[in-house]
Design a protein that fits this description.
Elements lengths: L3 H13 L2 H8 L3 H15 L4 E4 L2 E4 L1 H28 L5 E6 L4 H15 L4 E6 L4 H7 L4 E7 L10 E16 L22 E3 L5 H12 L8 E2 L3 H9 L4 E5 L10 E5 L6 E9 L6 H18 L7
Parallel strand pairs: 3-4, 3-5, 7-8, 7-9
Antiparallel strand pairs: 1-2, 5-11, 6-9, 6-10, 6-11
Helix pairs in contact: 1-2, 1-3, 1-4, 2-3, 5-9
Length: 309
């Protein structure tokens, strides 16, 4: 009989690309993972992995077994959800992956509310903007608070269930006493920023791509003075009067002094914030509680406005 844990290890190695990387994510030694995969190879009687440069790849038999492993592991989770639904109680642990830009105004309020409503639930929060949905499919996290920029095609795997939370527009951020475009807080046309010193995320990021595409639609290609994905750095440069930033509204603390934030009048740039879990036919009370708290925090944030300056 095939061992569920070994099937999970095979899936993790296939996703991570190496036994070492898989072992790190599983909090095991590389030797322990190799031993379990060797046992799985003995169980099926055929090689499942082959060397591929510095990584490993699935053999044909490995690909076939992984397809079945995905279904088996999904069925196991469905069974766990069904039992949890019968119990009808929120569990004791959950792991949330969230974007750094959502921590202050959505994640923190949501976790505070969960601590009050479900004190037995300990939520581990991983603040990261990398490979969140992959971690969800691998079972490393239970809920993802992610983003999707409207200009990008939808690529969510069918095994993932997505709950929209909030449409989050980018705002033009400048110093309160600056002379750059939008410093008076009025709506700004992107074309007005063509000669500004801009600070933008790298073009390899979703936000950077969205800004580049919107500026091109407005009739110019931006030549940023500063390039960083660190929103705190973007706001610091804007507050110092050194640059104009384009920052998601949710990432701006309403109490931040020395800045003004103005909406984009034309060619708006907007991201959808969503909560995602692995798709199951039966709702898991624990992940449902986490998503409900995120939705409530997002709803409250929607009614929060930057104070006048």
């Amino acid at each position: 009989m095939l061992d569920i844990r070994r099937l999970h290890m095979l899936r993790t190695v296939a996703a991570r690309g190496s036994i070492t990387a898989a072992a790190q994510s599983l909090a095991l030694s590389a030797g322990a993972v190799s031993q379990q995969l060797a046992a799985l190879r003995h169980d099926v009687g055929v090689d499942l992995l082959r060397p591929d440069g510095r990584t490993v790849a699935l053999t044909e038999a490995g690909r076939v077994l992984l397809e079945h492993a995905d279904r088996i592991l999904a069925a196991m989770e469905e069974a766990e959800c069904a039992v949890a639904a019968v119990k009808g109680t929120v569990g004791t642990t959950a792991t949330l992956a969230a974007l750094p830009s959502t921590v202050a105004r959505i994640v923190a309020p949501a976790l505070t509310a969960l601590g009050t409503d479900h004190p037995q639930l300990a939520v581990t929060c991983l603040v990261t903007d990398q490979a969140q949905l992959r971690e969800l499919t691998l079972g490393t996290v239970d809920v993802v608070l992610g983003q999707h920029y409207h200009h990008l095609p939808e690529t969510t795997p069918k095994s993932i269930a997505v709950s929209p939370l909030l449409d989050d527009p980018l705002l033009v951020v400048t110093a309160t006493d600056g002379a750059v475009s939008g410093s008076d807080g009025r709506p700004v046309g992107l074309r007005e920023l063509a000669t500004d010193h801009l600070v933008v995320p790298p073009p390899t990021t979703d936000c950077g791509q969205a800004i580049l595409q919107a500026c091109q639609q407005a009739g110019f290609t931006p030549t940023p003075r500063y390039v960083t994905a660190d929103i705190a750095a973007q706001l610091t440069l804007a507050r110092s009067g050194l640059a104009t930033a384009l920052v998601p509204r949710t990432a701006i603390d309403p109490a931040t002094p020395g800045i003004r934030a103005a909406p984009i009048e034309d060619n708006p740039i907007q991201r959808l914030l969503f909560a995602a879990t692995r798709h199951t036919e039966t709702t898991n009370p624990t992940t449902a509680a986490v998503i409900a708290a995120l939705r409530t925090a997002a709803r409250q944030d929607r009614t929060t406005h930057l104070p006048p300056t």
